[in-house]
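Might I ask for a little of your time on a matter of protein folding? Here, with my thanks, is the record as I have it:
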Amino acid sequence: MQQLFPIPIDAVDPLEIYPADARPRPPGRPWLMVNMIASVDGATAVDGVSGGLGGPADKAVFRAVRASCDTVLVASATAIAERYRMPVTSPEVTARRAETGRPPAPGLAVVTASGRIDPTVPAFAERPDDADRPLVITGADADEAALAELDADIVRVGAPTPEPGLVLAALADRGAAVVLAEGGPSFNARLHAADLIDELCLSLSPSLVGGSSSRILGDANGGDLRHLRLARLLEADGLLFARYLRA
């Protein structure tokens, strides 16, 4: 993998550079990263999931980005569609996380307004014995019976539905300084509307997909224009890996 910007470097290891990036905690909440992959025509999924857009280089950057956070945050629809598992780390990643003052693996938080999540999703049904239970963050209107079926710690925010600012506040109360949101696009749009995105890690796949797949911010009603600045650009196997920060 090579770095194209800000300084050209012939060979870089994403695991060495992403966890070392500065992420100062904003007042009252964690630093929020968003990590997404998209085709060059903007699609975020093929046949409903993102895996077909990536490859080995994308997996290496994905691993490095996850090594940089305290908690992985995902909306329930994405957790179900992608069959999410609890984050696990290799010895190499565990050592890198320890070097940057983080626990061996990030936690997982799933956001749901309804509370209705398939309990067979691996994060709930196949959790490693040594892993903490996932958090399910929801509001007062969630289905109590559905929540009771989940092997998870339930966190209810002080509102009918889990608005993004309340979700981040709940994670901050549990010690998270850096949170990584992995979608889906509708949830990303809500994070954007609340002006909470501090960092966007975007993998650009050299693919054309067509169809009606959502963009990384899946809000068909439009939204506010906010400028970002490019902090780094990597390339491998024709994929581009951009790190953007709020301008």
In short: The CA atoms of residues 43 and 209 lie 6 Å apart. The two ends are 26 Å apart (CA to CA). The first strand starts at residue 2 and ends at 5. The chain has one domain: 2-209+227-240.
